[in-house]
Structures are given as C-alpha cells and as structure tokens.
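Q: Focus on the chain.
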Amino acid sequence: MYHPYFRGKQNELILLRENAKFLTDFSIIPIIEPVKSNLVPLNKTVESLKEKDTQFILIVNPKHGDLKNDPSPIFENTIKNILEDYQKYCIGYIVDANSELLEVNDFLKANKEKSLVIIHGGFPKAKSLVKSFKQFSNIKKHIFMDDQTGKLYRKQFKEEGIERVLIQDGFVKMRNRDYTEKPKEHFSDLHITYDYEGMDGFGDFLIAGNNYTESGGPAYAIAIHLTYLEEEDNDMYIQHFVSDRVNTPIDPAGKFLEALKKLVSEVEDDDTLIFRSKAYEQFKKFHEKAHFPGLGITKKLSMQHHIELISNFFRS
C-alpha cells in the first residue's frame, strides 16, 4: 500500500537496514533509486531486506547521481550477486520525457523473466506504451509521479491484475531559515484519498522531497521536520522546528540543540498532535544529553518518524 521513495544515500540506506523487519510487518514497499557508484552500502541494504523477507522495488535506470549515465553495475553487481534467487522484489524502470519507445521495448524483452514495475515520470505517449506492454505478462505495477502524469495518462494503464500507485511530493523545499515564515503547512492527504484516485497504493518522498541534490551547503539555520495528522479528519501536515540563529554558518551543533528544544517542547505538550514515535524518543534522548548526531542522522530520524506515523495511522 505505502511506497516511500528513497534515493540511495547513505543514511537512507541505513534507515532501510535498521527498519527492514518493520517494513515487512507493515507491508511497506520501499522504492530505491541508487545514486552512488559505491554499491557496498546498497548491497548491505538489499541483503538486510532480503533477510527480513521485505518487498521492495530497485530502480535499474536511475535519473540522478553517479549511475545515471551507466547503471549497468546495478545489474552486474547487486541483482546478479544478491537478488537472483529472491522473489519478493521487483525491478523498477523509469519512463520519462527522455525515454525512447525502442529503448523501453528492448528493456522489456531483455527482462521478460523478471517481475517489473514501470515508474511513469513524464513519458508523452501513453497509448504507444500500453500497446508495447500488452506483449508482456511480467509487469506487476505502474507507479505514477503525480506532478508528471495527468489523470488521462494514468487512465490508460488501468488493467486487471496490475496495481497502480500514485507518488506525491508533499515536502516544500526551502532554505531552512525560511521555514520560520511558515512553521506549519499541509503535507498530503493521499494516505486517505489514494483510493478515490482509483489507485491501489500511494507513496511520497518522505521529508526529503523530490528535489535531488548531492549535498547541501553550509547550514545558516538548522531545521527539523516532523509530519503529523490533523485531529479532525487525519489530513497530514508538517511542522518545521528552526534554530534561533539563522544568519551565520557557524555552530551547527548549537543550532541543532536550539531547534531540538522547540521540537521536544512541542511534542511533550499535552495538546500536541505529533505522534510520539520511536524516532521521536531518539530525538528526546539527544535533547537530554545535549548531543548533536549530525545532520544526516537528524534527517534519517525525521524520515523514520514519517514512516512510523503512516504505519500507526493504518494500524489504528
């Protein structure tokens, strides 16, 4: 049902490894787009997912990062060496505005024995794709990027026995200091409305957003992002906790503690709407110890909180 979309950066892969059993228990199906040429962390992650019997989708033609021009190591290394005998993963293939129909057909023919997921990100010729797909029975799922596919396009791929999933980016990327102007904002209602859209599942880019960057610049401000459900109808919002100091790039550890103090104060309030997740409990421990774990771990915990929040919504 829920398909969180991960770019395969270090802390995202660690998050998947640490939560492999949780993902399996709650039928969460992560989508992984590898972005680093060093495949050791990715391979460790898929080993962990395999060990815990987790379903996942591994994209073999990434559009970002080190492998976008030559993704062959994903096949030669990860798939052949680790996943050849694993039945609970699917190969993900992106079709976008730069895809060629002949290229898509060649990929399908070369992988007709494998379970495939097509990720739609702006390909203009839906009917031509549908015609090509009818030759193959191994396409298990269509995943649509909400901002790059219209309703008419998505309608073309409605076929019995093949799931359809809608991915929506709810995270508005800004400079950290600018979140002080909008500390709370709407994130998504897709966890409630995906079936109204005629979909079998939904997904998002968590609190990372779809705006891929290799690394950030110096942090003038530190922001911690937590999603929460509005009380009346479970619509999802996001709250941004920003450091007091926002004008110089010095003392990121101190700025983190400033933002963290605001976060803990909010969540410990009796009237808070923020779910007390395991990720939050780790934030609270950092607050008690006045410890700065680094920006990567901070982002990882925010992502974990988001996954826990959605799981708790469907559990309750």
Q: What stands out?
A: The first helix runs from residue 10 to 18.
